[in-house]
Amino acid sequence: MRVYTVPIFRGVPIALCLEHWIANLYPVGWNPTPTRISNRKYPKLKEVDDVLGGSAAWENVDSTEETCPKCSHKRAFFMQIQTRSADEPMTTFYKCCNMQCGHRWRD
């Protein structure tokens, strides 16, 4: 087994130097107490635009017989948007016709 030494302490093994360093980190009699961070600054969140155009996009859309997965209402508004490349089918977005629910999902 090879013992590595520190050049400053000539011939003293590293383990002994680390013990000495750790032992002298805090002055004798000093009891570190945990401190609280009282001033936290959170970055401002960016405003997120509704991808589907917000509530105005759902004003003049058709409805169909699609069951809401949240409230089991039998009708839902729907609109189709091309979200992928042209060779992929259009994505159908649904919104529950029950005004108390208003759940949105896609198919």
UniProtKB/TrEMBL annotation:
InterPro entries: Rpa12/Rpb9/Rpc10/TFS, Zn_ribbon_RPC11_C, Znf_TFIIS
Occurrences of domain TFIIS-type (ranges): 64-106
Record has Protein biosynthesis as a keyword: no
Alphabetically ordered keywords of this record: DNA-directed RNA polymerase, Metal-binding, Nucleus, Transcription, Zinc, Zinc-finger
A single cellular component GO annotation: RNA polymerase III complex
Function description: Core component of RNA polymerase III (Pol III) which synthesizes small non-coding RNAs using the four ribonucleoside triphosphates as substrates. Can mediate Pol I proofreading of the nascent RNA transcript. Anchors into the Pol III active site to constantly monitor transcription fidelity, cleaves mis-incorporated 5'-ribonucleotides and restarts the transcription process. Once Pol III reaches the poly(dT) termination signal, can induce Pol III clamp opening and transcription termination.
PANTHER family per UniProt: DNA-DIRECTED RNA POLYMERASE, DNA-DIRECTED RNA POLYMERASE III SUBUNIT RPC10
Name assigned to this protein: DNA-directed RNA polymerase III subunit RPC10
Lineage: Eukaryota, Metazoa, Spiralia, Lophotrochozoa, Annelida
